[in-house]
Amino acid sequence: MLFSNVHKEASITRLLYCFWVIPAAHLGASETPSLPTVSIIATRSEKSVLETAGSDSVVTSGDMERQGSISIREALKYEPGVSIPFDFTGSDSAVPYMGGGEKSINIRGMEGNRISISVDGIRQPQEFQVAGGMSGAGRIYFDPATLGQLELFKSASSSLYGSDAMGGAINGRTVNPRGLLGKTLKGSKISNTITYSSVNESLNDRLVAGYGNGNWGYSIVYSFREGHERKNNGNIPSNPQDSQSNAGVLKALTRKGSWDFEGTVDLFTQDSSTDVASITNSTVTHWGERKRNRFSLQADLLTDNGSMLVDNFSSLIYVQESRQSSFNLQEDRADDVMDRRRRISYQSNVTGVDLEAKKAFETELFKHSLILGVEATGSKVESRHHVNDLMDNGNQVSLDKIDMDPCKAQEIGVYVSDEIKFGIEEKWALTPSLRFDRYEIIPLKDAAFQQSDIRKDARFDSMEYKNTVLGSPGISLLYRWTEEINWYCSYNHGIRNPSVEELNGFFAHPPTVGGQEPYIYPNPELKEETSDSFEIGSQGYFEGGSFELAIYKNFYDGFIDLTQQPNDFILIYSNENIGKVEVHGIELSLKKNLSDWLDSVEGLSAGISTSWSEGKRVDLGKPLSSIEPWKTVFFIEIAEASNKWSGRLSSTFRAAKGLSEIDPSDGDVPIDDSLVLDLVTWRKLNDTWQVRAGINNLTNQKYFIWSSARRGGFHGSNAGNSTGERNTEPGINGFFSLTASF
Hints:
Blueprint: H1 5-24, E1 56-60, H2 61-66, H3 72-75, E2 82-83, E3 86-87, E4 101-102, E5 106-107, E6 116-119, E7 122-123, E8 147-153, H4 158-161, E9 169-174, H5 177-181, E10 186-197, E11 202-213, E12 216-228, E13 241-256, E14 259-275, E15 283-301, E16 312-331, E17 337-362, E18 367-391, E19 396-400, E20 407-422, E21 428-443, H6 447-451, H7 453-458, E22 465-466, E23 471-480, E24 485-496, H8 500-504, E25 507-508, E26 519-521, E27 529-542, E28 545-557, E29 560-565, E30 572-577, E31 581-593, E32 604-617, E33 622-623, E34 631-639, E35 645-654, E36 674-684, E37 689-696, H9 706-709, E38 733-741
Parallel strand pairs: 6-9, 26-30
Antiparallel strand pairs: 1-8, 2-5, 3-4, 6-7, 8-9, 10-11, 10-38, 11-12, 12-13, 13-14, 14-15, 15-16, 16-17, 17-18, 18-19, 18-20, 20-21, 21-22, 21-23, 23-24, 24-27, 25-26, 27-28, 28-31, 29-30, 31-32, 32-33, 32-34, 34-35, 35-36, 36-37, 37-38
């Protein structure tokens, strides 16, 4: 999996071919309709921000290209209340377990399986944290370059999305024929963007094309990436790494009478090879692969041609296979093992059906928009862990350390939502929503797991699980004070069911230097987490600017966390419902066109956003360490009147994370505050060519982001240990991109 010079030359040739040859063979230029930016994730229907009671935002593919985003982390780095953890491969100084990259998303202090992550409405796999000794398979099984837009809803939304959405939801909408060609499905469009980023010396080619004749529409987006390790700004460099990924989404849309039918093929694969130089007195190489394949068919009854019963009906059938696997080879060990080979994998295969109907109707005083939906999924989740040791005496010892009984997970959810508008000019909107879920985990009694030593030593039999908390109600009230300003308040009751790993997953670490052998035991007695989330806020959008304000208070009960168990001889950890947690905070953003005040300066604008939150474990009287410190982003931008060029300077201040804000028993240590400056600019050379460039961390600030500094558990490294230098964020770095559009 190490890339040879020949392989690199072939890859560069392919990039040049995509950039120069394919655009030359375009189908003919056409004007592409400009579609308004709307969000679906907050209400399951297309609405603008002013029609949404909650904190939602949209990042388009154009936004990502303009700021040089090569990852979802960079796409959301300015978003208040949001942080994306990053893990360095093998950052532990003694054990090569950790896989690298972006693993999860932290929204207002909630992360992991408390956040719903989906692509085209299809959920990504659950986070897999510790079984098999890995840092977790993560949940980012897609390339953001394949997205047309990224939708984020920071308010709790279990009443619409069920389990895993108690901390918010994020959905990527891939490039599609409607987005490229408009509702008429006529014309053609093709563009190609090549981007170089110095932060990991990567090259990315993004090809987007669409064609339609009115009855049929096609779209394709393909992203190829090749690069190396992400550079940090510490005294200890990142482990040397080569990586490559391919991602493509092909969609075909046709109209038959009153129906639209859309078929999708969505393929993603990512490979990496890492020289784990952080391992002392041995040579370690870590190979990793992450892949996801999705095939889906969606049918939509056109709104204008709805029947008497419904105005719109949508059905989605899909199959999705997701897998992360790793192989690491450790040579020249200091003990009696000459070399050790580990193969660790995590796989989740899911089949699902989503049905949704919408109906609008009026009574004497009220105007209703009713949504009724059903979701049903069946999945198989498994983890494998094989170890092969070559001893100094020439003997080989092989062990199937299967850490979890493979399980089936079955879920069916039924939800209903009704937006009720009333009052003078229908300025008030009351939206009650309710969802019922039935969730079940069925162990498959795998023969290898039944014979495993760890299961026998623990005297554990994998257990079935059925949820007991079935209903998730929610309600919101929105008032359109003026055409440009609203006020809202909302309540949502959330749930999160325990994951397959938390219920039936093991982990046994070899004895440490002190002679203790840490274990993670499953806990089949886990119950659902529940939450009650309250939010009030206001939003305003004007010709010369905008503002958003959100104040929230969230209560969590039965919070699941990994906890050390009492034992005098060995270290035992297990997930437990630890009790009550409270989180509260505020988010504010302002944007203003300064040209309204300064007539002599055309196209000048500025903005500021800030987010602050605080969380605590009520029962333990300790702070909740996953809360991000206060973050404030300020920007000033100038754009040429005819929109041919623009430049933006952004500054991001992150407050320190002090001892009073963390739980020392988690192994976390404080970090200092930081101020980071970024500069980006773009210019449209003509109707075909556009260039973009940027410099990040202009002052070469050495700093940490809390969500990354605190990650790792048994095999992580935070800002306070000997390898904390590897967790520093990148120093000064830049990007350059060139786009051809036809």
